[in-house]
Amino acid sequence: MPGFTTQAQVTCDQCGGQGKVIKHACTTCHGRKLKTEKSEIQVEVEPGMKEGEEITFDGDSDEGPDFEAGDVVVKLTATRNKGDFRRRDIHLYTTYAIGLDDALLGFEHSIPHMDGHNITLKRTSVTQPGHVDTIREEGMPIRENGVVHGHGNLYVEYQVVLPERVDGDLRTALQRVFGRKQGTKDTHEEL
Q1: Which of 16, 53, 65, 89 could form a disulfide with 33 if both were Cys (CB 3.0 to 4.6 A apart)?
Q2: For residue 153, what pLDDT is reported?
Q3: Hey, what's the signal peptide range on this chain (predicted)?
């Protein structure tokens, strides 16, 4: 019975298919001409940069004996929320909870902005639930060609938080203010 002869091509274990063998291989790369190295890159995100903008570090990526170093490209992705603020293009949006007393009598409160400075919220009249105040120039920085020239707006929507219960002296005081007698119910004629 005749035997079979097979032939296969495999990569050379000595040269790795390069056709050359390094006689005195270093102890770091063992003749592969490459070593793994970690490095840190400082990424400076300037105020007002938008989602999707890219910061490129030329020549800071992988390199090898047969090719030049590539670039590291950092693509910005916005954090969905920074505290209570939401970003939409150059504008910021937030909600602010106030009590019934503030909604009826007005208020002056201070809230921290994303960058650390305080913003004064002031209302002197009745504030309806869902009312939105526009605070000009307190939004995101507006950048053109790397230069900041103004800011967008901050929109504050008020949520009126009612107490869970009203009883005792508070109930009596509210009945007196609203002209209701204890135990009576208002009827709506228009219904």
Answers
A1: 65
A2: 98
A3: none
